[in-house]
Amino acid sequence: MTEVVVTKDKDSAPAADALVVLENVNKHFGPLHVLQDIDLTIARGEVVVVIGPSGSGKSTLCRTINRLETIDSGVIRIDGKPLPAEGRDLARLRAEVGMVFQSFNLFAHKTVLQNVALGQVKVRKVPRREAEEKARQLLDRVGVGNQADKYPAQLSGGQQQRVAIARALAMDPKVMLFDEPTSALDPEMINEVLEVMQQLARDGMTMVVVTHEMGFARSAANRVLFMADGRIVEQATPEQFFTAPKSDRAKDFLSKILHH
Ligand SMILES: Nc1ncnc2c1ncn2[C@@H]1O[C@H](COP(=O)(O)OP(=O)(O)O)[C@@H](O)[C@H]1O
Ligand SMILES: [Mg+2]
User: Closest Cα to atom 2, ligand 1: which residue?
Assistant: First the structure.
């Protein structure tokens, strides 16, 4: 089982095509050093899966990339531009980085269509008619076009998460961050969300995905990052990582998630 569905080759991506760059990034929560000297370059079109034990800093890493969390030192650049501190530039930057959370975070009192159209109208100043047209296309793309006029609570978890993905895509993000997007779903709904993500990967979206779905990592990731205690302990192709992890931490972690 060595076939990899996604055939992009990260080694062939020139350094100039770096889309997300973290240099020597450090982050503390009080006495806790949650990101320790993180150096990471993600190429345009690359799919990076981040795995590691609970508390290792995976969510914090994602949240710093779209500036939901500040950093204490180091630099983060998106497409060559350092993350702005605040204000209008920050709102624009956030729109360039799509984020999908474990808990779908849809507006309960707005329809599915409104949820997907809203950001375009508010942040991008797109006319409502145009925003709704695009929202319908995106809802079709993630397979929930027929749910457009319902409210989130009327949808299954898998459908809601696909709406959340459509909402993020509506902003034309340069990179999509997924933080355990299937962890809150009933098992029978996990695949419908992973399939949408697989398709995005095939379409060339740059993606950072925190997940324990090893099947997804094997088939969609160009690179697996293993984090522990706020550090990137190991990184490799999925094939290398899953068949021959190098560090004891990674071996221990894999034995727990693969043989439970
Ligand atoms: N807002 C916060 N305030 C204080 N500590 C936090 C906060 N967010 C996360 N942490 C701590 O930082 C560490 C890393 O958390 P997190 O990035 O959520 O890890 P992971 O996503 O890998 O489980 C954990 O010890 C967590 O308890
Ligand atoms: Mg987390």
Answer: 29
* Best residue among 26, 28, 29, 183 to mutate for probing ligand 1, ranked by most atoms within 8 Å of CB: 29
Residues in the chain: 260
At residue 12 the predicted structure's pLDDT band, cuts being 50, 70 and 90, is very low
Are 207 and 199 a contacting pair, CB within 8 Å? no
pLDDT confidence of residue 63: 95
Q: Whole-model pTM?
A: 0.91
User: How does pLDDT run across 186-231, given as a tens digit for each residue?
Assistant: 999 999 999 999 999 999 999 999 999 999 999 999 999 999 999 9
Residue-wise DSSP of 102-146: SS----TTS-HHHHHHHHHHHTS---HHHHHHHHHHHHHHTT-GG
Which one of 27, 28, 32 would you pick to mutate in the ligand 1 pocket, going by the greatest count of ligand atoms within 8 A of its CB? 32
Element housing 248 (H / E)? helix 248-258
Phi-psi region of 256 (alpha: psi -120 to 50; beta: other; left: phi over 0): alpha
For residues 62 and 140, the answer to whether their CB atoms sit within 8 Å is no
In order of their start, the domains of the chain are: 18-256 (3.40.50.300)
H helices, E strands: number in the chain: 9, 10
Q: How far apart are CA 130 and CA 123, in angstroms?
A: 14
Q: Tell me, in angstroms, the distance from the centre of ligand 2 to residue 56's CA.
A: 8
Contact 174, 79 (CB under 8 A): yes
